[in-house]
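[step 3/7] inverse_fold.run input=structure_tokens len=428
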């Protein structure tokens, strides 16, 4: 009676493969999967970063007030937080690989709709794009943990690099595209639907892997193995776990600083006498050192000891950049943008790495990713709004930048818990 049971358990394991199992050389399949993953990640910031350089044109043509323009910039970040909480339910319904494909298609549709005439289409398309990106944000760490478990550090670096690269590309190319083509902002923004559609097509082969064809198949496997009985209480406990909250707060606070700078840096530099085109270029330029730092973040996270050194270095770099923007924003702009880009790139790379490193398996990675992105981006949306309000109230930039320095202190405190080498729910 015991013998069949003994042989049945090992037979179930190969059905849940960590690597793609389509016919063909394993190395080719891995490279193809990594390329499709990176291409999808590249599109998770383009829709947001492409709007900022032409926001004044959008405001003029659509007769938006200053509040309306600020709201348009804030909608995506709010969506990143609010719609992240739908990802677990949608993942259970469709499976993570199918859901990412649907999200890329929705992102394509949202970008196209955003470029249609009318304020309703503008905000509606932005909302759809933001919701699609929110789902993608949650899925990516889970996919790294599941599909690239043996190469998690490398894929985390590629993921962070793609995020920064997409933002830099969109922020730096939109205005030159307008000048080169003679098109308006609607046509230029609509062009960004092309890379998201290409990413959806590149992801299609991942849906053909045998154990991904039916989203219900893994759920049935978990039920047979008893996993479904323990998942629900573990997820409820995650909201009471200190490590989970440390990771979430670190994600939220570093994102707050990033989106505050993304929204207001050009205005700060313009107020100090820099031209509009030069101010826009400085924002794009800061992404290049950020790309290098975010790619190196997983390596630094694994090798720097004590583990707290890496997030402390990120905070000190950001603080140096903020102080420089107060003291000599124009004459030292390249130096401050380099330092700030390094700090923010390292911080986002670490934040994403903590989501993967602090979870024991792909199931918990998905839940921790939901919590970190959902709560984190709801915190982050206070950055653009708060900085604008502080600037209006004080009439200058000293108070807003001082608040960003205070946020860095809180971010560093959260890093104490996030950088500890332990899994969430380790005591349960």
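[step 3/7] decode complete -> sequence:
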């Amino acid at each position: 009676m015991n013998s069949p049971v003994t042989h049945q358990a090992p037979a179930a394991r190969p059905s849940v493969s960590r690597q793609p199992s389509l016919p063909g050389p394993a190395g080719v399949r891995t490279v193809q999967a990594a390329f499709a993953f990176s291409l999808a990640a590249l599109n998770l910031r383009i829709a947001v970063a492409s709007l900022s350089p032409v926001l004044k044109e959008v405001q003029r043509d659509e007769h938006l007030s200053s509040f309306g323009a600020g709201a348009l910039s804030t909608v995506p970040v709010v969506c990143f937080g609010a719609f992240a909480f739908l990802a677990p339910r949608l993942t259970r319904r469709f499976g993570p690989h199918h859901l990412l494909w649907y999200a890329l298609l929705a992102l394509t549709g949202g970008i196209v709709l955003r470029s249609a005439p009318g304020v309703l289409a503008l905000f509606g398309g932005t909302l759809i794009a933001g919701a699609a990106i929110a789902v993608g944000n949650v899925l990516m760490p889970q996919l790294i943990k599941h599909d690239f478990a043996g190469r998690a550090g490398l894929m985390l670096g590629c993921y962070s690099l793609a995020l920064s690269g997409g933002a830099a590309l969109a922020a730096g190319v939109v205005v030159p595209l307008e000048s080169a083509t003679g098109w308006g902002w609607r046509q230029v923004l609509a062009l960004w639907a092309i890379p998201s559609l290409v990413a959806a097509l590149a992801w299609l082969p991942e849906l053909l892997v045998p154990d991904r064809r039916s989203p219900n198949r893994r759920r049935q496997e978990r039920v047979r193995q008893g996993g479904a009985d323990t998942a629900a209480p573990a997820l409820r406990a995650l909201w009471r776990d200190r490590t989970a909250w440390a990771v979430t707060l670190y994600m939220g606070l570093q994102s707050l600083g990033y989106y505050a700078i993304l929204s207001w840096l050009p205005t700060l530099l313009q107020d100090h006498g820099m031209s509009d085109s030069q101010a826009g270029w400085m924002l794009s330029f800061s992404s290049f050192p950020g790309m290098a730092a975010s790619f190196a973040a997983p390596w630094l996270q694994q090798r720097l000891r004590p583990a707290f050194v890496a997030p402390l270095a990120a905070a000190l770099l950001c603080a140096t950049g903020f102080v420089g923007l107060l003291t000599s924003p124009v004459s030292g702009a390249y130096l401050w943008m380099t330092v700030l880009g390094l700090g923010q790139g390292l911080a986002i790379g670490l934040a994403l790495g903590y989501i993967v490193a602090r979870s024991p398996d792909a199931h918990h990675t998905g839940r921790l990713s939901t919590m970190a992105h959902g709560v984190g981006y709801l915190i982050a949306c206070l950055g653009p709004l708060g900085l604008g309000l502080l600037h209006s109230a004080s009439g200058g930039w000293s108070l807003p930048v001082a608040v960003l320095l205070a946020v860095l202190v809180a971010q560093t405190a959260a890093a104490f818990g996030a950088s500890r080498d332990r899994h969430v729910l380790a005591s349960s």
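[step 4/7] annotate
DSSP finds 21 helices and no strands in the chain.
Residues 1-24, 223-233 have pLDDT under 50 and may be disordered.
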